[in-house]
Amino acid sequence: MTEREIKDRYRYLVSGYFGVKSVEDYPHRLFLLKDLKEYISQYVEDTFIEDFDYEGEATRIEREISRKDKLQDALIFLNEIDGPIDIIIDIKVMLKDLKYKK
């Protein structure tokens, strides 16, 4: 992987994490968030880039990326790790609702 691909993947993983975090009515959310955080930590450990501000980038993503984008990234992330189908369905419904609210 190139440095750019590593950074881009980190960004969608973190964005996906925050997307899952925004699904407040999912009963196993805290357990899933713990697993996602461990997955991201392992990814960072495996692909560490010396001059990349991981924490700063995560903070920027949390503040600046739209909820819709975070939910879309959550679908990608959950698909990648074979996440629970019930939250995937919930996220798809949320995205559909966001689409029709515009």
Oligomer: single chain
Runs in which pLDDT lies below 50 for 5 or more consecutive residues are none
Give me the secondary-structure category.
mainly alpha
Average predicted confidence as pLDDT: 94
Report on this model:
This protein is mainly alpha-helical. The chain has one domain. The chain has helices at residues 3-21, 29-46, 54-64, 67-80, 85-101. The longest helix has 19 residues, at 3-21. The radius of gyration is 14 Å and the shape is globular. The protein starts with a helix and ends with a helix.
Question: How would you summarize this macromolecular structure in one to three sentences?
Answer:
The protein is mostly helical. The protein is built from five helices and no strands. It has one domain (3-101).
Task: Give the tags.
mainly alpha; 5 helices; globular
Helix/strand layout:
Elements: H1 3-21, H2 29-46, H3 54-64, H4 67-80, H5 85-101
